[in-house]
Amino acid sequence: MTADVVFVVDPLERLDPALDTSIGLMHAAQRRGARVWATGALALEARDGRARCLATPLHLAPSVPDQGCRWTVPDPWFRAGTPAVLELDEAAAVFVRTEPPLDDRFVTATLVLDLVDPQRTALVNAPAGLRACSEHLLPLHFPDLTPATLVSADPATVRAFVAEHRTVVAKPVDGFAGRGVLRLDHHDPNLASLVETVTGAGTRAAVLQPYLREVTAGNKRVFVVEGEPVGAVHRFPTGGDFRICDTRMAAAPLTDRDREICARLAPTLRRHGVHLAGLDVIGPHLIEVNVTSVGGLRKADALLGWSLCADVVGRALDGSLLAPSLLERTPA
């Protein structure tokens, strides 16, 4: 019987088929003989206690590795079939791949997905886990693994933290891909204005950490599946920007510290049904735990000849990612 694999994604026209991990996972599912379906957060529905969606079947055109992190893809890169309503309990796997922010639309989608039986359908990642595991705040549960961190909406508190550490990095709690990230220096004459910007003049919290000199050499993305590290890449800043560019990468060895970080986080990730995660590490410090639309796998597969996307999809289809109990489900 042909397996159905459903991808909850942003509109297809917003995805880059040459780089996007969601596309790599779709290709891997198609190569395994599965039917690939695309749907969106607003297309998810609940009817009489069951989750369903209006989804479009996709047939992806072949792609091959190109220069660097990219894949060569034809135009058009997919052929769409006739949309149909799917009962998600009947799918082999559901990959939740919409980008942040985690707004009301996203939360509602995850609550609908809570109705999917994780013992029958692999949920990557579990919807309750996506709500529980804030990418920027989960590391705070492991303070010995992270640099000094402040989460605050109070401008005075933020300014005091900057004064203490001289140079800090500030980012939105729900930010991603480096968007909204600022470097704050204690001697900057625009500091007060920048603090107002990052806190929304005291209306939203920001995450602040000391600027780590090691970031000038880049950071490391550790790919974690079922709590175990399966590979890592070094990612570099570019063009004088201190932020990391994830299209400039190289293979990175897993250090003892990397393995220690993974081992410490593994029970938490497994408990929340986070089957796929990307840990961002600078020097010895854990910075972020990416659980929502984890990226970089397709790029690493192209650059390094790895099979990360195929590994994740293979585990989803062979039953390895099914829940052993109903712990991931939200009680009524």
TrEMBL record:
<dbReference type="Pfam" id="PF02951">
    <property type="entry name" value="GSH-S_N"/>
</dbReference>
<keyword id="KW-0436">Ligase</keyword>
<dbReference type="GO" id="GO:0005524">
    <property type="term" value="F:ATP binding"/>
</dbReference>
<dbReference type="GO" id="GO:0005737">
    <property type="term" value="C:cytoplasm"/>
</dbReference>
<dbReference type="GO" id="GO:0046872">
    <property type="term" value="F:metal ion binding"/>
</dbReference>
<keyword id="KW-0317">Glutathione biosynthesis</keyword>
<keyword id="KW-0067">ATP-binding</keyword>
<dbReference type="InterPro" id="IPR016185">
    <property type="entry name" value="PreATP-grasp_dom_sf"/>
</dbReference>
<keyword id="KW-0547">Nucleotide-binding</keyword>
<protein>
    <recommendedName>
        <fullName>Glutathione synthetase</fullName>
        <ecNumber>6.3.2.3</ecNumber>
    </recommendedName>
</protein>
<comment type="pathway">
    <text>Sulfur metabolism; glutathione biosynthesis; glutathione from L-cysteine and L-glutamate: step 2/2.</text>
</comment>
<dbReference type="InterPro" id="IPR006284">
    <property type="entry name" value="Glut_synth_pro"/>
</dbReference>
<feature type="domain" description="ATP-grasp">
    <location>
        <begin position="134"/>
        <end position="317"/>
    </location>
</feature>
<comment type="similarity">
    <text>Belongs to the prokaryotic GSH synthase family.</text>
</comment>
<dbReference type="InterPro" id="IPR013815">
    <property type="entry name" value="ATP_grasp_subdomain_1"/>
</dbReference>
<keyword id="KW-0464">Manganese</keyword>
<dbReference type="InterPro" id="IPR004215">
    <property type="entry name" value="GSHS_N"/>
</dbReference>
<dbReference type="InterPro" id="IPR011761">
    <property type="entry name" value="ATP-grasp"/>
</dbReference>
<keyword id="KW-0479">Metal-binding</keyword>
<dbReference type="GO" id="GO:0004363">
    <property type="term" value="F:glutathione synthase activity"/>
</dbReference>
<dbReference type="Pfam" id="PF02955">
    <property type="entry name" value="GSH-S_ATP"/>
</dbReference>
<keyword id="KW-0460">Magnesium</keyword>
<dbReference type="InterPro" id="IPR004218">
    <property type="entry name" value="GSHS_ATP-bd"/>
</dbReference>
